[in-house]
Amino acid sequence: MSHSKRPDLSPDSLTALVEQRRLKKEQRKAALAREEEEKSRILPRRWIAVQEAPGTGQQLRVMTWNLLAQSLVRRELFPTSDCLKAAQREHMIYREILSHNADICCLQERHPSEVDRLEKLLPVLQNAGYNHVYAAGPRKKHGCLIAFRKDAYSLISERMVEYDLEEVRGGEREVARRGSSFRTRNIASLVALRPVNAVSEGVVVATTHLFWHPSGATQLSIANRQAAILLREVSKFRDEVSPTERWPCIISGDFNFPPDDAAYSLFTGDPLLSEQIARLAASRVVHKTIDPDVPAAPEAATEEAEEEEGAAAKETDPDRIITNARPALPEDGLLTDTELADMLRQLDRPMSVYDSAQRICCASSTLEGALTYGNRISIPSERHGAYEPNWTSYTYYWKSVLDYMFVVSPPQRKIVVTKLAKPHQTDALSPGIPLKGVCGSDHISLGAELFIPPP
């Protein structure tokens, strides 16, 4: 007959033991919560009121953000960052996305090749009540994701636009029809969403990550071509899914050009300035990825590396040196200034959410002028761009405005911005993000509440 070595406990002792175990469990739970809070801590984001919604209609909150793909992280690019490892940034990224409480999230720079990264992000979105559509270019290390609340919207249609394959004019020669100077593998992701209650009309959402190159001179004509194609394809997609109603459109992402660039001016309908025309003319080159007969530069980066954002982007790189390329010839078919303007003139002109909303806020003194792009870079008042955020990318070496949120209003109805995620003060981002407790990416997210009048 066996005997237990454990002494019999009185009822009071048992109660005390249970309470002790409960306290230990609560302490472990609190410690884990503190650890989770510390890992996910970010700079709080204030929302500011822009204007009242003029009546009843569809209201939705949208955010866009470039998440900084882990495959593009390099210590030499972010020498002051203290959170370059994926595990250090991940929870900050989740919190930033969810803190916007958006109906629609447009995210750039995630890819299935980063298996642990995308497979961790998707459950977070699903648990928060989102469905998603993901798209990436062939062999591209990052892509675009559009998430939408499944209790609010259903997916009607989707499309991926591959800029390399799109034609910009007619003609017999394929090279001239495409008018491309560089094979970039960049894409845009387009979706048509309908409210689940079917009371309101649907909305077209597009997000993109346009081409970037360490040589700014190379990039200008490529960005102009891609931006023009983007607006054209969004318009075509909208007319296909809503031929009679012509649904409102939201276009957001990392455009990789600042507000004083020719691409921004053309996209928003401003005439080109003489200095923009000169920079655009100098950027018209044809790269070896389009013309294999272009001689390779000595010790040039590999094709794979040169086409990826961040590659060769060192402080010592001269901004205007163009390698593996030759000046464009008329037969290359690169779009002229006139062709670009004519192509965009035929389309509904998009309105920049931040540029229009922050103009209103500054006029009513509800936003400090230091939080606008025009506080740093002089832009004439009659042109667009001065009221974009002060920064949307802020790293130790690279500080600029590259991310935007545009809307295309339906005929006879204007989309109104009612609230806005306020930009951060510059000193809060120094010496450069990503930074623990501040932001998990090298870009700053944008967010807005939109009011769409009923048909």
UniProtKB/TrEMBL annotation:
Any single biological process term in GO: nucleobase-containing compound metabolic process
Domain Endonuclease/exonuclease/phosphatase: from-to ranges: 63-443
Matching Pfam families: Exo_endo_phos (PF03372)
Keyword Hydrolase attached: yes
Tagged with keyword Nuclease: yes
MF term (GO), any: endonuclease activity
InterPro entries per the UniProt record, alphabetical: CCR4/nocturin_mRNA_transcr, Endo/exonu/phosph_ase_sf, Endo/exonuclease/phosphatase
Keywords: Endonuclease, Exonuclease, Hydrolase, Nuclease
Family of the protein in this entry: Belongs to the CCR4/nocturin family.
Protein name: Endonuclease/exonuclease/phosphatase
